[in-house]
Structures are given as structure tokens and as C-alpha cells.
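Q: I'm building a small set of examples for a reading group on sequence design. Run inverse folding on the following structure and report the sequence directly after it, with nothing in between.
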């Protein structure tokens, strides 16, 4: 099976397509499958991505439906940053990344990486505890 991208519609008469080949319109995202005689309109398949997105975007799930997607900026749903300007020995981070075992990096106001005890509370947040109060920035990656 081959996947061909074209601007509007599939080529008339198949254009040399083999049975099962798929044509995807760059303009509309519509898809057709060649049945050996004619192009048949098909529903969006999980293995064929719709055209769209910018160079700094990725396709991400949109809501609870596994096959509903949308284009989002590269960092959306992947990286979360927050500044904690007031020194504290506990930072509560509600990152919302929908992943429990995230990577956590803390940099204090002097630019030094600081290690804290991270409690992975849920898929939406964690708590970082320090031996002494710290001010700085946390970067959390999924």
C-alpha cells in the first residue's frame, strides 16, 4: 500500500494506483482508497496523519477519545515551568501533564541545580521538599 499526498482530489482513473493505495488531500485532509476501479472516500485512519501543523507542533490526543487529535505547540502537554520567587522548603507543582513519573529539575536564583525530595502525588502534580527554603524555577518534563 502506498500513501500519496496531493493538493485537492485523487487523479482520475487511478493515476497508476494499485489496489489499496490511499490518497490524502493536503487542502482538506479528505482521504480516498483505490479499490482497483475507482477511488472510494474513507474515514480518517489511525495510521494516516492529517495534513497540518507547523514545524514546532505535534499531534496530540484531544479529550478522552483515542482517535480525536489536534495540533498543539511542541511543549504543550510535555513541559511545564513555574517560578517560585519566594523561598520555601516545599513547592506544590500542579503541572497538569497527565503523567505521574515526570522528570523534575530545580534551578535556584543563583543558577545552581538544587536537589529536592519529590513526591509524585498524581498524574497532575507533585510536591518538592527541600532541606532549607529555596527560591527559583522548576522545569517538569513528561
Amino acid at each position: 500500500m502506498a500513501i500519496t499526498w496531493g493538493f485537492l482530489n485523487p487523479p482520475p482513473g487511478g493515476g497508476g494506483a494499485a489496489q489499496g493505495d490511499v490518497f490524502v488531500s493536503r487542502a482538506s485532509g479528505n482521504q480516498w482508497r483505490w479499490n482497483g476501479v475507482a477511488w472510494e472516500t474513507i474515514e480518517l485512519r489511525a495510521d494516516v496523519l492529517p495534513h497540518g501543523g507547523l514545524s514546532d507542533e505535534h499531534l496530540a490526543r484531544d479529550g478522552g477519545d483515542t482517535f480525536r487529535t489536534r495540533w498543539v505547540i511542541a511543549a504543550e502537554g510535555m513541559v511545564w515551568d513555574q517560578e517560585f520567587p519566594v523561598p520555601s522548603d516545599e513547592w506544590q507543582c500542579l503541572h497538569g501533564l497527565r503523567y505521574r513519573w515526570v522528570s523534575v529539575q530545580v534551578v535556584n536564583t543563583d543558577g545552581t541545580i538544587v536537589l529536592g525530595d519529590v513526591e509524585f502525588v498524581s498524574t497532575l502534580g507533585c510536591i518538592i521538599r527541600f532541606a532549607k527554603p529555596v527560591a527559583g524555577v522548576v522545569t517538569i518534563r513528561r
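The first strand starts at residue 3 and ends at 6.
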